[in-house]
Amino acid sequence: MSFPEPTAVPRPSPAYARVFDCPNPVALVTGSGAPRVGRAIAMALAEQGCRIALHANTSTDEASQAAAEITRRFGSEAIVTCGGLQHDGVADRIVEETHSRFGRIDVLVNSAAIWQPTRLENVTSDEVRRYFEINALGSFLCARAAGLKMVTQPSGGSIVNIGDWATVRPYLDHAAYFPSKGSIEVMTRSLAVELGHRNRRVRVNCIQPGPVLLSQDVSESHLQSLAASTLVGKIGTPENIAHAVQFLCENDFVTGVCLPVDGGRSIFAPDGLQVGMNTG
């Protein structure tokens, strides 16, 4: 889906213009229809002057509203691409739709993912397979499709995968989910080598978010407990993740990195063992 041409001129980012040799680079953000982390990333990139391809599976109406908001607020052209990444051909199609519309693709952010708690004894092979198809294989196929476009561009491109900090300390009742997210880290390093070997201006990195978007029904006591579990003593925001994406896109000396944006949660536990009881 496309929308009317913007009437305002998007403000270019000098850093992005330098890195991508284009005043208004093109960014595709998967899983950016619903108002979650992907949406915040798309908005932040639009604010930097990027032309945006949003992607949604079921949240197409919300994606259309977001595209209209991007054009209204930032003057950036925006389109909506649709489809479930578990289906054959969808990853290639949404990248092709983006490239055909804009004539280039400079940034891909793999934000689409699914998760829900399931007790180990209730996990089915179909559930594990679906996690891998969407979280892992979907990200890989999008990155491959976009990366093979980027290597043909003199300016290269930047791919940012969204992982999960908790692959190092998995939550209970998510045994089907974490293997799919753990693969994102290895995938990032492998694709950084594969694509960087073909064009040294193509970079692939990963962000591992911590607690940044909580359910609205979380109690105040639970919220305080989650805040205390971070080293910085607070819950993060989707904008914290979006800012990290901006950094990885504009810093052309960073590739193959898995960056926790988790308030220190991956290195800290509020159990006293790191403070005063650290006896080995």
Q: How would you sum up this structure, described in words?
A:
With 280 residues, the chain is of the alpha/beta class. Helices cover 41% and strands 13% of the residues. It is built from eight helices and seven strands. Helix 5 packs parallel to helix 6. The radius of gyration is 19 Å and the shape is globular.
Query: How many strands, which pairing sense, and closed or not: the largest β-sheet?
Result: 7 strands, parallel
Mass-distribution shape: globular
- The radius of gyration over CA amounts to 19 Å
Write the element-wise H/E pattern from the N-terminal end onward.
HEHEHEHEHEHEHHE
Percentage of residues assigned to helices: 40-55%
Strand content: 5-15%
Termini, distance in Å? 58 Å
> How many beta-strand runs?
7
Integer average pLDDT? 93
Biggest sheet strand line-up: 3-2-1-4-5-6-7
Poorly predicted regions are none
Q: State the assembly state of the protein chains.
A: single chain
Put simply, the count of helices is 8
Class by alpha and beta content:
alpha/beta
In short:
The protein is α/β, with parallel strands linked by helices. The chain contains 8 helices and 7 strands; from the N terminus they run αβαβαβαβαβαβααβ.
